[in-house]
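Hi R.,

As promised on Friday, here is the backbone we talked about, encoded as structure tokens. Could you run it through your design pipeline when you get a chance and send me back a sequence?
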């Protein structure tokens, strides 16, 4: 959510942000509602002041004069109630529009409608060249009885999976490796639930626009979260932190659930696009300082790259376009890992800077060294998500015999096995 002060002072910047992000929000309507809300709030304060003065003036009046004053107080009370109801309505409408208002992208973001406008920043490693006909990850899993896709889909529906044997153990090793790596870098490990109230989704910006992608538990009034960021962000909702507590660094683990409502028929084979998965998320709360946010963005991206490098996988980093980065983000980089069966790089990680956009929604503030209360900045990044990362891991490291070579970083969790 953007500050009203910024919208009032620089409406053209918000109009431009809405245009390049493809967000349908009327900035003029926000300005109009803001003006009307302030006018009603001022009128309400004036009426309350009049009623207070009237109450103070009862002493020394005759009974007839008192009766007139009571009549006037009753009229003022009715007017106050009308203004209070009007203010609640206007504030609700204004907040509804503010929740749709996009963040202003940084100057280096490519302008474009979707991922087709993303720019490759760098490529690390080379895609493998096989001297045999490689198998895709589904064929590899079938050969070794590492998964059950057909039976579990009959029980649980499409886009579900069940890993078995050594592959199930490898998934645990991958998650542990990512968590251990981040703990060594100063991040606090936290395991959080996958269920949350709708306001937590609003706080991160996943609602209202992303509501269709979340599974709902209507009886409980809860939703299943697609990332631990939703819960972790609201852990500090309503708090005023001290500047000495910042930055706060979380390594957050949780099961995740997404409907993938807008995915159509893309990448539905195997493990690439499933409804339930597991993720280790990096999450940072820092000072209201764009330069500090930029430093943390680089560090989060570096952490994620180091994990992919430890798996000895070829990947590329892309600068996401304004239309691909999402409503609340100032900057977003994706890490895309090479998937041989697709013949292309496929997104496995995402790194995002949001400045104070989430903090205003969640009301997370801090007291700076001069005693001023300010909104924090937030950032998040995928450290690892399974089972998606298993797809490039299996396919890139296969040999002619259908075995899969384990990188050294993971071999140590698998009894030292290299295959």
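Update: got your reply. Pasting your designed sequence below so it's all in one thread:
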């Amino acid at each position: 959510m953007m500050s009203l002060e910024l919208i009032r002072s620089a409406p053209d910047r918000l109009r431009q942000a809405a245009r390049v992000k493809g967000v349908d929000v009327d900035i003029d309507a926000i300005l109009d509602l803001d003006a009307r809300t302030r006018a009603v709030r001022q009128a309400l304060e004036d009426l309350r002041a009049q009623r207070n003065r009237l109450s103070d003036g009862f002493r020394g009046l005759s009974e007839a004069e008192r009766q007139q004053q009571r009549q006037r107080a009753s009229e003022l009370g009715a007017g106050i109630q009308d203004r209070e109801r009007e203010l609640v309505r206007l504030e609700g409408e204004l907040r509804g529009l503010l929740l749709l208002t996009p963040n202003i992208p940084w100057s280096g973001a490519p302008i474009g409608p979707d991922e087709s406008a993303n720019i490759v920043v760098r490529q690390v490693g080379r895609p493998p060249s096989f001297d045999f006909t490689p198998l895709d990850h589904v064929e590899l899993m079938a050969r070794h009885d590492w998964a059950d896709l057909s039976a579990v889909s009959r029980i649980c529906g499409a886009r579900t999976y069940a890993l078995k044997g050594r592959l199930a153990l490898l998934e645990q090793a991958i998650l542990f490796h990512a968590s251990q790596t981040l703990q060594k870098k100063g991040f606090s490990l936290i395991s959080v639930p996958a269920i949350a109230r709708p306001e937590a989704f609003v706080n991160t910006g996943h609602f209202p626009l992303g509501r269709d992608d979340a599974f709902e538990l209507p009886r409980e009034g809860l939703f299943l979260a697609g990332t631990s960021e939703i819960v972790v962000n609201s852990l500090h909702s309503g708090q005023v932190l001290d500047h000495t507590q910042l930055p706060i660094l979380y390594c957050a683990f949780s099961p995740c659930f997404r409907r993938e409502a807008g995915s159509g028929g893309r990448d539905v084979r195997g493990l690439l696009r499933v409804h339930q998965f597991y993720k280790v998320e990096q999450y940072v709360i820092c000072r209201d300082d764009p330069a500090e946010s930029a430093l943390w963005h680089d560090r989060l991206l570096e952490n994620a790259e180091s994990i992919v490098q430890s798996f000895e996988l070829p990947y590329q980093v892309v600068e996401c376009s304004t239309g691909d980065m999402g409503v609340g983000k100032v900057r977003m980089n994706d890490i895309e890992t090479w998937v041989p069966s697709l013949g292309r790089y496929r997104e496995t990680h995402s790194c995002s800077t949001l400045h104070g956009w989430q903090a205003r929604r969640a009301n997370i503030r801090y007291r700076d060294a001069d005693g001023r209360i300010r909104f924090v900045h937030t950032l998040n990044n995928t450290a690892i998500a399974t089972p998606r990362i298993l797809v490039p891991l299996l396919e890139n490291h296969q040999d002619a015999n259908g075995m899969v070579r384990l990188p050294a970083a993971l071999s140590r969790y698998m009894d030292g096995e290299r295959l």
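One thing I noticed while checking it: The chain has a mean pLDDT of 94.

Thanks again,
M.
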